[in-house]
């Protein structure tokens, strides 16, 4: 190897920086800072109860998803809902199931109609 | 070694005193290693801090019976490698797209002392070649140690050393 290059490498061996007496304090301050930044709600839960906490969280989210995404069965149909707004009280009486005449009375009425 | 082992086990458990002891015990070694690749004290200090932050973030990966100083040296060299690559990319970008003044300055670096040429030649080497050469010639590490530190095979280290010397000779011959 070139003598000049060898001399340069020997010179470089002498060039060394050493840490000042407070270096470790600065490092530890950064370590604490990094640790505080990484702290999440998960770290607040003791490690023994993490599986239980996790399972409860999953079940709760699943229940919420079911509530939100699966629609409830409607109490009335689409046509009922549509017509209801336009029905007056007399019209409502016609379609009302509560005030329906019994079958015998209906048959009598139908008999009158046929006789005519 | 036994002391190191206990210290590492305690540091893995999050003991701040043990972590501080590790910094105190190993920081001269980390500083020496980084000094081989960077010339300003500020750069060396910043990188040494980064090395210890990485070490404590990954301390769970260390097996207490493993050679801790070897693992630490590997983290330090990898950190230097990343930084050298970043600097090289930045310099190339500046030379290509930067202002004219910077382009001219980087073409002819000023020689501050009698070793200016050798220093400039060494600094112009790709970090892949520069790191093994520095570890061999300045740190006086064996090929086996370099291979372990850089995570390479011994053959790969030998090839890189050969190429680094050849390239260095070519650069110095041109000037």
Protein described:
The complex is a heterodimer of chains A (116) and B (175). Chain A is an all-alpha fold and 116 residues long. Chain A has helices at 3-14, 23-38, 41-44, 50-69, 78-84, 89-95, 103-115. The radius of gyration of chain A is 43 Å and the shape is rod-shaped. The mean pLDDT of chain A is 80. Chain B is an all-alpha fold. Chain B has nine helices and no strands. The termini of chain B are far apart. Classes of the chains: A mainly alpha (116), B mainly alpha (175). Chain A binds chain B through residues 1-2, 4-5, 7-9, 11-13, 15-19, 23-24, 26-28, 30-32, 34, and chain B through 16, 19-20, 23-24, 27-28, 31-32, 34-36, 39, 41, 44-45, 48-49, 52-53, 56-57, 115, 117-119, 122, 137-138, 165, 168-169, 172.
Largest sheet, strands/sense/barrel of chain B: none
Give a count of the beta strands of chain A, DSSP E runs of length 2 or more. 0
Shape of chain A from CA axes?
rod-shaped
Q: Fraction of residues of chain B in helices?
A: over 70%
Radius of gyration of chain B: 18 Å
Distance between the termini of chain A: 130 Å
Give the structure's gist in a few sentences.
The complex is a heterodimer of chains A (116) and B (175). Chain A has 116 residues and is an all-alpha fold.
């Amino acid at each position: 190897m070139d003598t000049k290059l060898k001399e340069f490498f020997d010179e470089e061996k002498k060039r060394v920086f050493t840490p000042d007496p407070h270096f470790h304090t600065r490092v530890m301050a950064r370590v604490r800072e990094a640790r505080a930044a990484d702290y999440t709600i998960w770290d607040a839960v003791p490690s023994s109860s993490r599986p239980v906490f996790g399972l409860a969280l999953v079940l709760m989210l699943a229940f919420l998803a079911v509530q939100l995404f699966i629609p409830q069965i409607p109490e009335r149909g689409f046509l009922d809902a549509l017509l209801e707004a336009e029905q007056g009280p007399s019209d409502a009486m016609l379609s009302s199931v509560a005030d329906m005449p019994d079958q015998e009375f209906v048959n009598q009425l139908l008999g009158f109609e046929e006789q005519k | 070694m036994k002391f190191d082992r206990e210290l590492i086990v305690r540091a893995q458990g999050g003991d701040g005193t043990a972590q501080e002891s590790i910094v105190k015990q190993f920081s001269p070694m980390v500083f020496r290693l980084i000094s081989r690749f960077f010339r300003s004290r500020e750069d060396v200090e910043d990188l040494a801090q980064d090395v210890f932050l990485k070490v404590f973030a990954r301390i769970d990966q260390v097996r207490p019976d493993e050679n801790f100083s070897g693992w630490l040296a590997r983290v330090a060299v990898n950190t230097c490698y990343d930084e050298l690559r970043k600097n090289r990319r930045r310099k190339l970008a500046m030379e290509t797209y930067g202002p004219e003044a910077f382009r001219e300055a980087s073409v002819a670096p000023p020689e501050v002392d009698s070793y200016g040429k050798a220093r400039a030649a060494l600094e112009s080497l790709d970090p892949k070649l520069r790191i093994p050469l520095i570890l061999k010639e300045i740190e006086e590490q064996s090929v086996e140690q370099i291979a372990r530190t850089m995570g390479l095979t011994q053959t790969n280290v030998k090839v890189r050393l050969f190429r680094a010397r050849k390239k260095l000779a070519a650069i110095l011959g041109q000037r």
